[in-house]
From TrEMBL:
NCBIfam families: proB. Belongs to the glutamate 5-kinase family. It is found in: Cytoplasm. This is Glutamate 5-kinase. Substrate binds at S52, D135, N147. Its EC number is 2.7.2.11. The gene is proB.
Amino acid sequence: MSVANWKRIVIKVGSALIAPNQNGCSSHYLLGIAQFIVKCRTMGIEVVLVSSGSVAAGSHLFEQEGEINMATKKAMAAAGQSEMMATWDRLFDFPTAQILVTHGDLRDRERYVSIKETIFSLLDNGILPILNENDTVTTDKLKVGDNDNLSAMISTAADADTLIICSDVDGLYDSNPHENPEAKLLSVVNDINPQIYAMAGGATSAVGTGGMKTKIQAAEKAVAHGIDTYIINGFTEQSFNSLMSGNNPGTHFSPDKQPMQEHLHWMTHTSTAQGEVVVDNAFTAELDDDSEQLTSEEIVAVNGDFAVGDTILVRKDDGTKLAKAKSNYSSCLLSFIADQDDKAFASKLQNTTGPIISDNNIALLEE
């Protein structure tokens, strides 16, 4: 996709670009990114910025001896977030806005829609949304864990057509370019498969929490929604000049030709299953065609504690994952129905209360 066709893009900037020396924020690498954002906006392209760096930006304010505990990291994030926002704000002559989110916000459909609406309202008023994970309040159960995957989730929420992930290398190589001088850059990836993941390796930055693997994960989420995705070297201004010239400076991940619908993409890639319904291994019903074929008689077990409207995983007893779906039953009621010896009673109760899952709220999972 040429820059001339961009309507709305998301740019993800990592901690190593924000605070490369972990001595507070630096505009050394950010200036080129800011100029790129300004040029895009001048061309009528709406921009959403996902910016890591709060912990790295605030770390120099704390005495550090030995291993840093989680409470101190959260305090670093609290102190560094304001410095990071101030740094971005100084680089623009238009207003910016801060949006801090957790995975708990994104996986809750009502809050997810609220985030979408906020982003749209900011863009409609010419304000640059700057998003980051809320490290100060997040917990293991609520966190995304890295801003690469967060940027893909935000790209979907923002209805972006392009996602640009800044890295410390030019893109995805067939081996680690820091270790192998003969490593070759992959300019285009049309299919994200196990071989592509095998090339990702581990993290290359001592500052950030993500490596190339999380960038591939993010690309997989984004292209599934039809979003062109690029991994580029954010440390060189030439990368952004190349994009503005219509050239690919890194690795371009081609979008799926048949993108997932937004609510199914959210269920597959953003929402977290709160429990699971285990069906018999002989279960053969086509969940996407007629979900009402899933009856209490075919349920082997109900695991977890979930409420009506929560996302659940439907799997076979042998572990095969079939689908993620919105449950029309609580785990308590579903367990009660499934445990009934009187199948006629169970069937009558189910017919009264409706299907276990509805066919418009199912996202099939690939093997």
